[in-house]
Amino acid sequence: MQNLSHIEISEICNQLGNSYPKSIRKIFGGNIHETWQIEFENERFFLKRNIRKKEFLKFEEYCLRKLNDNIDSDNLIIPKVVSYLKVQEVELLLMDWIDMYNGDQKKLGKGLGEMHLQSNQYNPEKFGFPIEGFIGTNKQIEGWSNSWVECFINLRIKPQLSILGNNFIDFQIKNKIYEKIESELNKHKPINSLIHGDLWSGNIGIDHNGKGVIFDPASWWADHEVDLAMTRLFGGFNEEFYEEYNKIIPIKDSFEKRVIIYNFYHVLNHANMFGGSYFYQVQDYIRKIISL
Question: Sign (positive/negative) of CA torsion 268, 271, 277, 280?
Fold first, then answer.
C-alpha cells in the first residue's frame, strides 16, 4: 500500500483552504485506483488516486459532472466533484463523502429512469461521446454516429474484438455477429440517453434517506437499455428497482434479446481485462447472438 505523499496532502489542503486533515483512512476495494476517506474538522471527502499514465480520473470527473446535470436529486445522488488535481503526474479526484447503507432500491430505479429520460430531452442527435474514455482499464473510444447500430458496432464492439484478436474469433464469425446485431437493433427504436455505462451492483448504493447512489461511471450517449442490460449481468438489483424504473420508461418488445447484445460489450471487456473464464463466456455470448 502506498501512502499519500506530503505534497499531495498539501495540494488537497490548499484546494480546500483547510489545514492538515484530522484523519486519513485508507479504503480497500477495487483494483484500478487507490482510495481514501479524508476528514477535516467539519467535513469528510472521498479521494481517488491514480498512478497510471492514462488519465482515468480526468474522464471520471467529466462523466460525474455531466451526469449530475441530468438527475433529480430527490431520488438519485451522484458524487459531486470537489476538485481534480494532478500532482507530479499523479491524478487525484476529490469528491463529497456519501455514507451508504443497505436499503430498498425504489428511489434508485426511479432516479435512474428519470436521469435517462431527462438527458434524452437535451441529448445530441448523435450517439457516442466527445472525449476518449475508459471501461475498466480498456479504452472507450470517442466519436459520434447518427446511427445507433453503427455507433454500437463501430465504437464499442469492434474495438473490443480487435483487442481480443483474430486467433480467438475468425473473420467469418465476426461478420455473422455484426450482421445479427445490426438485424436486431434495426428493429428497435432507442432512447438516446446519457448513461452511467458501468452499472453493476459494485457501483451503486443507498444513502441514509433512501436515495439511490451511483458512482464510478464510464458514460456515453447510448440507448438507455445499455444501463438496464448491465444491471442483469452480475445481479444485485431487485424487483422493486425494475418496477420503479419501468414506471418511468416502460420495457419494450424484444428487450431480452438486446440484453444479450448489449452485455456482449461488457463480457468482451472483462475477457480482455481478466482473461480466464471470461473467454468461455465470450464464446457463449457469440453462440447466443448468432442464434437470436
Answer: positive
Catalytic residue numbers? 198
Look at residue 104 and give its three-state secondary structure: coil
User: Cα–chain-centroid distance for residue 106?
Assistant: 20
Edge-first strand order for the sheet with 90-96 is: 23-27, 34-39, 44-50, 90-96, 81-87
How far apart (Å, rounded) are the C-alpha atoms in residues 127 and 46? 32
Lowest mean pLDDT among 101-105, 150-154, 263-267: 101-105
pLDDT 10s digits, 77-91: 999 999 999 998 899
Grid cell of 124 as nine digits: 445530441
The residue with cell 455484426 is 178
Task: Please report which confidence band the pLDDT of residue 1 belongs to, taking 50, 70 and 90 as the band edges.
Answer: very low
Nearest in space to 290 (alpha carbons), one of 263, 270, 261, 268: 261
pTM for this prediction: 0.95
All residues at 6 or more sequence positions from 163 whose CB lies less than 8 Å from its CB, including other chains? 138, 268, 272
Residue given cell 438485424 in the structure block? 183
User: How far apart are the two ends of the chain, measured CA to CA in Å?
Assistant: 47
